[in-house]
Amino acid sequence: QVQLAESGERLVQPGDSLTLSCASGGGRYTRNTIGWFRQAPGKERTFVAAISWNGGITYYADSVKGRFTVSRNNAENTPYLQMNNLKPEDTAVYYCAAGVSISRVAVKRTSAYHYWGQGTQVTVSS
After folding, report:
1. Which of 21, 46, 110, 125 is exposed most, by the fewest CB atoms within 10 A?
2. Contact at 8 Å (CB) between 1 and 112?
3. How far apart are CA 41 and CA 124, in angstroms?
4. In the sheet that 5-6 helps form, which strands lie side by side, from edge to edge?
5. Is the model's pLDDT at 84 over the cut of 70?
């Protein structure tokens, strides 16, 4: 059983950078696609970014393209979400997720992922 846990809650200012990581809790998901999602108060959980199992293919939501970078270090069993030039509208609970055999069409769907972290709050405010 893969258990995911995102890095801790953060409060940052607009324009700041922040990197989230996701611990596996003992399981290995090196053959899994890793997705990052976020959920703002009162809104649905939405796709942010994803990376294929070998890191060769990445996907981004239009709202974060050019500012966020998803990566993974399979040797360390750790995926990362680097977030630059953060904006107040990036404020949300961020989740990492893992799943196998996720197609390009399905990669942005929450239903495609089998394992989820508990989420970590990121607040962007001056």
Report:
1. 125
2. no
3. 14
4. 5-6, 18-23, 78-83, 68-73
5. yes
Q: Considering Cα of 10, then 69, then 102, then 54, what sign does the dihedral take?
A: negative
pLDDT tens digits, one per residue of 41-61: 999 999 999 999 888 899 999
Q: Count CA atoms within 13 Å of residue 18 on its CB side.
A: 22
At residue 125, what is the residue type?
S
Judge whether 20 and 7 are in contact, CB under 8 Å.
yes
Written as one letter, the residue type at 18 is: L
Phi/psi for 88 (5° steps) reads -55, -35
Which tokens belong to 7?
Answer: 């890095």
